[in-house]
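Changelog-adjacent note: as of this version, every example in the card shows the full chain rather than a window. The one below runs 64 residues end to end.
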Amino acid sequence: MAQPTDVLEAAVKQYLSELTDEDFAKLVAEVRPPADDDNPEQKPKPDDGPAYPESWGHRPKGAK
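Full-length structure tokens:
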């Protein structure tokens, strides 16, 4: 039996396969922080909650 997420996964794979290299790079840059382990500001703090991009409407706790 298929899992409920199989259709979603297939749609995401299709969407990603149709992106240009430039659009894919922009998407990855938007949703994944740089892999700079030396910069403590880039590491999420345990009490900050999920690290969603601001373009998704996420505002840090206490921000208005």
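Structural remarks: The chain has a mean pLDDT of 76.
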